[in-house]
Amino acid sequence: MPAELLLDTGAFVALVDRSETKHAACVAVLERWTGPIMTTEAILAEALYLVGPAWLPQKACLEFFLRGAFLLVPSSKASLQRVAALMEKYHDLPMDFADATLVALGEESEADHVFTLDRKGFSTYRLRGKKAFRLVP
């Protein structure tokens, strides 16, 4: 498998919430992936919101990072400038902030595999305007 995988919100929530229809498929991806799994603070915040206010699901999200299973990559000024440019470019889709941070991270790290359930968005987004993402699962 490739070296790095970008984690999107929907797949993250499906990993934590056993009632999600894609839970088993997402767990299978996680069990097979051998390289680093990276995401952004925006994806973490979105996932924490979507799992709801109860502590146990939120704790499960945080545990992935505390155990070192996922790498949390903070935004820099340069990456936020890129995020703004991406959101402007894809405004007709529209691209939300969390997705834009993930695309910017993909460009910075040269990671083109994205662990997502958002097939529409990530089938449309391009790395540096050219290279398509490889969607997992």
From TrEMBL:
**Which part of the chain is the PIN domain?**
6-123
Name a Pfam family for this protein.
PIN
SUPFAM superfamilies, alphabetically? PIN domain-like (SSF88723)
- Gene3D superfamilies named in the record: 5'-nuclease
> What's this protein's name?
PIN domain-containing protein
